[in-house]
Structures are given as C-alpha cells and as structure tokens.
Amino acid sequence: MASIYDFSAQDLFGKCIDFTQFQGKVLLIVNTASQCGFTPQFAGLQALHDAYHEQGLVVIGFPCNQFGKQEPNDGVAIGEFCQRNYGVSFLMMDKIDVNGESVHPIFDWLKTEQGGLFGDNIKWNFTKFLINRHGKVINRYAPITKPAAIAKDIEQALSQDI
Fold first, then answer.
1. Is 125:36 a contact under the CB 8 Å cutoff?
2. Is 36 among the residues known to form the active site?
3. Bridging pattern class, strands 137-141 and 57-63
4. How far apart are alpha carbons 35 and 12 in whole angstroms?
5. Contacts of 109 (CB under 8 A, 6+ apart)
6. What are the pLDDT digits (tens) for 26-74?
7. Where is 154: in which H helix or E strand?
C-alpha cells in the first residue's frame, strides 16, 4: 500500500468510509478508548478539529479494547459517550484491533510507516499518527503527547501545498 488513500474502514454506524475522500487533507489518526486515563484527550482532539478542520485537518478516532479492556462499549455507545462528555464531532470509526493477528490494515500500515520508540506495536490508547496531504505518515506521537502539543506540526503540514 502506497498511502492512506488505499484503505477503507467502517465508522461507528457501520458505514464504509473510503479514505480516498481525504485526498489533499491532513489526517490525525488516533486509537482511542472511553475508560482510559488518557480519555480526556478527546477534548484536545476536538479542539484541534475545531481549530483546523476548515483548513483541511481531519481527525479520525479508532476505538480499541486491547489495552486494559478500556473500550468495552459498542459503536453507538462509544459515539454517545464521546459526544456527551467531550463534544466530539470528528469522525469516529468502529472498534478495531491495533496489534496482533486481527490488526486492522490501516494500523498495520501506520505502524510499518512510522515505528515507535520501542518497536512498531502500539503500546497504549491514544497513540497518534499525523498524515500529510499526500497520504504519507509524517509523525507518530506517544499516548502521553497531548493534542495541543501537536498543533505546530499540524500547522506546518497544513501549510504545505499538495
């Protein structure tokens, strides 16, 4: 696979989202969980969405239950939780695996493109990947990295022409 545009995934409501629709956009892809110590980062992700969406940023959350079983809910409950508690209006996908035999192809590709400090596997919820307007991964951020700390990188990616 050459870029993020080669993938598709289901959203929380079972609709297939073809990532070709994001060509020319900057993407921030995050594995999320609603019962994690990092869950308050939803507010920061929403703030990034609010600040940069009109300029071409697309924030996409992928719920995952692989770390401490911190995402036990189904799609509808996940969406309701995120909206009710953090005002999330950015795209939330269906729950997936980010590691192991059942890893979603998007995360398999993301990890191959941008390995982590201690190996390629995702270590915990709220690992973030920034993708440029050409569909290439330009950075990976640890779960402890707050969304606001990524703003300058997002601004730089948004300022680059297609």
1. yes
2. yes
3. unpaired
4. 17
5. 1, 4, 6, 7
6. 999 999 999 898 899 999 999 999 999 999 999 999 999 999 999 988 8
7. helix 151-159
Stretch 81-109: mean pLDDT: 92
Supply the pTM of this predicted model.
0.94
| Active-site pick, 16, 36, 64, 82 | 36
Q: If you compute the radius of gyration of the chain from its CA atoms, what whole number of angstroms results? A: 14
In SS3 terms, 24-83 reads as CCEEEEEEECCCCCCCCHHHHHHHHHHHHHHHCEEEEEEEECCCCCCCCCCHHHHHHHHH
Determine whether 47 is exposed, middle or buried from the number of CB atoms within 10 Å of its CB (0-12, 13-18, 19+). middle
Please measure the distance between the N-terminal and C-terminal CA atoms of the chain and give it in whole angstroms. Answer: 20
